[in-house]
Write a structure and sequence with these properties.
With 299 residues, the chain is mostly helical. It folds into two domains: 150 residues, no CATH class; 148 residues, no CATH class. Helix content is 75%, strand content 2%. The longest helix has 32 residues. It starts with a helix and ends with a helix. 36% of the residues are buried.
Length: 299
Amino acid sequence: MNLVSLIYTTLVVLQTLLVLTGGAVRLTGSGLGCPTWPDCVGGSIAPVPHQAQGTLHSWIEFGNRLLTVLLIVAIFVAIAGAIRWGRARADWAMIRNLAIIQFLGIVAQIVLGGITVLTKLNPFAVSSHFLLSILLIGASLSLRQRMVNSPRTNVLPTTLWLIRALLALSAIVIMLGTVVTGSGPHAGDIQAKRYHIDPRLISWMHADAVIALITLTIGLILVARVSETVTNRALVGKQAVLFLAICLGQGLIGYIQYFTHLPEGLVALHLLGAGCIWLAMWNIAFTSHALSRTTSSAH
């Protein structure tokens, strides 16, 4: 792995880890382990001995904040790298914009993190915090793939339509997942409010959306195999098969955790799966472009 790949892969990994550490905060009931912001506790950035919230809860929440600091460093390194290696490129404008999004995104995350703490883990703030991370994960992947010159291809209109529909449906699945989380038992703290929605109803709506996602993914695989070139079948088709495997695994975890009453370990694994689904789907969308009319005629 060369330096460019290392820098931007690290950025993607850290953006994804921020979701996982945030999940750990919620699942361990450590959401108010640091009850103030930006301090952890009045007069101290870090947890203090014998803190009322408990040592473990305080350090879990503080660890999530420390990861944010590490992510800020990675973002500044990525921006410097974009300027160093990207300014002479034809896609410099897009690289610049993606780098700026990373900076603005982490600023927004810090503000949302503060609002989340100060509102005692209001589910709207928690959901917004998570969904912003999902957007930034996608943007960081796009930046990484551009900087390492990841292969891209032109696909037929039907294939492109299916990919865009899958991207939108993936976003819906993840958003419904945040509502499931916001109405379930793992609030991050016993004092935290919940959405006033029937957990069973929203869980089944989420499951139905996942089934639709799996069905549409199978459709994409079949369309790619029947109508796309050999090269596109190898590239887009392979990515779609990987995406299908992740969706099936995620669906299985979801059903098991639902019928076993949401054990923390499975919920954490399901959260990791959500990040993997978004990364895999975003990569498919990044890879595929509209086929020009000239190329389409030749095809």
